[in-house]
Write a structure and sequence with these properties.
Layout: E1 21-29, E2 38-45, H1 60-69, E3 74-82, H2 85-99, H3 126-139, H4 149-157, H5 172-182, H6 197-230
């Protein structure tokens, strides 16, 4: 898929050594059975983009698809190279907004990048971890704790207050009265009765049709899988990013 935002590669800044590389990329799935075909992301690496062949994305959906269909059906293409992370994120934001990737059925992306200040890269700071820990402790009060003996005694003392019949059983005559009362209700209208031969024939015909439809669906799905597996690997879907085109 051609992008409408071609950006030429930026040369390394001569004033500072190039210790990290920042680029936007696209992953394409060539398997005919995959409904999703594309994934846009940005990446910072310590190696040049054309040598960053082991990284594909952090998307669990894309990783699952590579496992399901095989890595040989996926190719990676560098869309643009940038001087810093903010510029690479800005490029990703522009691509996500243009294609609306989170709502597009042909994309693996499940969210649109909307801010250069937000990224899933890196670990949270110590202060952020402390805030998360405090919030979780407030929301999980009592988890992993055991009630004291005094608390257990209080619970035993009020047992039966909200469930008066807890631990008790009906007498046989009470059970007989309940059974007689329920006998004529609509839910028990067929209790003790038998289906007629015509009704049994209708039920059998319906079940046979249902199972036949399920069997046909399963056979069609297996045939589709066999035909997809028989399709030769498309040219250029080598499974690695060794042939990356940089725009």
């Amino acid at each position: 898929m051609a992008t409408k935002f071609p950006i030429p590669p930026f040369p390394p800044d001569p004033q500072a050594p190039q210790t990290r590389y920042y680029y936007a990329y696209r992953v394409t799935c060539h398997h005919p059975a995959s409904p999703e075909k594309y994934y846009y992301g940005c990446r910072s690496s310590r190696v040049p983009p054309e040598a960053d062949t082991d990284y594909w994305s952090r998307s669990h959906f894309l990783a699952a698809a590579r496992t399901r269909y095989g890595p040989e059906w996926f190719t990676k293409k560098v869309v643009s190279v940038h001087r810093n992370r903010e510029e690479a994120l800005a490029k990703e934001i522009k691509l996500h907004a243009h294609f609306d990737v989170k709502n597009h059925p042909r994309f693996f992306n499940r969210a649109n990048q909307t801010s250069t200040k937000f990224t899933t890269a890196g670990a949270p700071s110590a202060a952020t971890r402390e805030k998360i820990s405090a919030t979780m402790k407030r929301n999980l009060v009592g988890v992993g704790r055991h009630a004291s003996e005094a608390t257990r005694a209080k619970l035993r003392s009020v047992r039966g207050t909200f469930a008066p019949f807890a631990g008790r059983a009906h007498r046989p005559e009470t059970k007989a009265k309940i059974a007689a009362t329920l006998q004529g209700r609509p839910n028990d209208a067929n209790r003790g009765s038998r289906h007629s031969a015509a009704t049994k024939a209708k039920i059998a015909a319906g079940m046979r049709a249902h199972h036949a439809a399920r069997q046909a669906t399963s056979q069609a799905a297996r045939a589709a899988q066999r035909s997809a597996a028989a399709v030769p690997v498309p040219p250029g879907a080598a499974g690695t990013a060794t042939a990356i085109d940089i725009f």
